[in-house]
Amino acid sequence: MDAKVIRRQKLKWRIRAKISGTTSRPRLSVYRSNKEIYAQLIDDATGVTLAAANSRNKTMATTGTKVEKSKAVGIAIATAALAKGIDTCIFDRGGYLYHGRIKSVADGAREAGLKF
């Protein structure tokens, strides 16, 4: 494996050892690929995904930069969470630096009313 991938995996394991989502306060997990970005709310107590959003969705705006698409994903996951009665969550950056697209997802979710 690539050294960069191994480094991110170790960071991810370290983060996951410290945080865990519950039904009342799920974990907002973010995955970033080169082209797309994915976010989901996870209840780790039961192992269930409560809500999910991604930039591949046809209802999302396909134009704009990747940072703008990431903010739209953050807004989409927050509206899905609020529709299910979830207003707080724990942010899991997935081993990525809190910068750029990851920060944009968090900002979009906060802007739409989700509290971390």
Query: What is the CATH architecture descriptor?
Result: 2-Layer Sandwich
Q: How many DSSP H or I helices? A: 3
Could you please say which CATH topology applies here?
Nucleotidyltransferase, domain 5
Low-confidence stretches: none
Spatial strand sequence of the major β-sheet: 3-2-1-4
Beta-strand percent range: 15-25%
Coarse structural class: alpha+beta
Please state the average pLDDT score.
93
- The Cα radius of gyration reads 14 Å
Shape: globular
Helical residues, percent: 25-40%
Molecular structure report:
- The structure is a single chain.
- Helices cover 39% and strands 20% of the residues.
- The chain is α+β, with helices and mostly antiparallel strands.
- The protein has helices at residues 3-18, 66-83, 101-111, and strands at 27-32, 37-43, 48-54, 90-92.
- A 4-stranded mixed β-sheet has the order 3-2-1-4.
- It contains 3 helices and 4 strands.
- It has one domain (20-111): Nucleotidyltransferase, domain 5 (2-Layer Sandwich), CATH 3.30.420.100.
- Strand 2 and strand 3 (48-54) form a beta hairpin.
